[in-house]
Design brief:
This protein is α+β, with helices and mostly antiparallel strands. The protein has 3 domains: about 90 residues; about 45 residues, no CATH class; about 70 residues, Alpha-Beta Plaits, CATH 3.30.70. The protein has 6 helices and 9 strands; from the N terminus they run H-H-H-E-E-E-E-H-E-E-H-E-E-H-E. The strands form 2 sheets. The chain has a 5-stranded antiparallel β-sheet with strand order 4-3-2-1-5. It has a 4-stranded antiparallel β-sheet with strand order 7-8-6-9, covered by helices on one side. Helix 1 runs antiparallel to helix 2 and helix 2 runs antiparallel to helix 3. The longest helix has about 30 residues. The protein is extended, with a radius of gyration of 24 Å. About 10% of the residues are buried.
Length: about 240
């Protein structure tokens, strides 16, 4: 009697692992190339932010794919193994997933000041199962589940400045102006600038500056590049 060949084997699982590892490092290499060698413009900046998000969620997604392939080798035995592991590691898995969503929050990054329960301090680094918080009592480790269950407040962060508006008088297109702005470190690209058409043949620029940068610096930069500015929607 002919037997049906098993499509999912340990060998296929091994090769799937190799493919995922190669794919991961290809993304890392692409991200490195974009950060080091790509032209400085808004499109590439948005592409860099996109690939950083991809890398953040790639590991859990790849792990899920490997687990599904692992189960398909022997549905009953391997499912039982995963259920047992899931029961004992549930709190750590939940903690890790909470960390993914916390790290994907654009308002939270290294250097942000958080209040978490009795602790208030600056984020020093993100770890797989928690973050290091520099407080008056020293460096504290706080796991992500504690943060999500007890809640937190953002006291300050690197991107907490208000959205501002400038009106522009120029013959340049919005894309040309955005590319021009990207060559200057004044703007905060965690909240990318947006340019729309306004009345009186003007363009409306909405932007957020980096900490320490001022509107005056931006106006000077634009006018040095033949872009006239106005604080309200009136043509000069």
């Amino acid at each position: 009697m002919n037997t049906i060949p098993q499509l999912n084997t340990w060998r296929s699982l091994f090769w799937l692992l190799i493919v995922l590892v190669i794919f991961y490092w290809c993304i890392k290499l692409l991200l490195y190339s974009l950060e080091k060698f790509a032209n400085r413009n808004l499109y590439n900046k948005q592409l860099i932010l996109f690939f950083k998000k991809v890398i953040l969620f790639f590991t859990p997604m790849a792990t899920l794919i490997l687990l599904l392939d692992f189960v398909s080798i022997n549905y009953i035995a391997h499912s039982i193994v995963l259920v047992i592991i899931g029961v004992f590691a549930f709190s750590q898995i939940k903690n890790y997933v909470n960390g993914l969503f916390l790290k994907s929050n654009p308002l939270i990054s290294n250097g942000s000041t958080l209040q978490i329960g009795d602790y208030t301090g600056e984020i020093k680094s993100f770890l797989p199962l928690g973050l290091k918080l520099v407080t008056e009592q020293g460096i504290q480790f706080v796991n992500y589940t504690t943060i999500t269950t007890s809640g937190f407040a953002i006291k300050s962060n690197k991107t907490s400045l208000l959205r501002q508006v400038l009106y522009l008088n120029t013959e340049q297109t919005p894309d040309q102006i955005l590319d021009l702005l990207f060559d200057n470190p004044i703007l905060n690209y965690n909240h990318p600038p947006v340019i729309n058409k306004a009345d009186n043949n003007q363009l409306k620029l909405q932007y957020t500056t980096e900490n320490g940068a001022s509107r005056k610096e931006l106006i000077t930069f634009l006018e040095d590049n033949s872009v006239q500015t106005n604080l309200n929607n009136n043509s000069k």
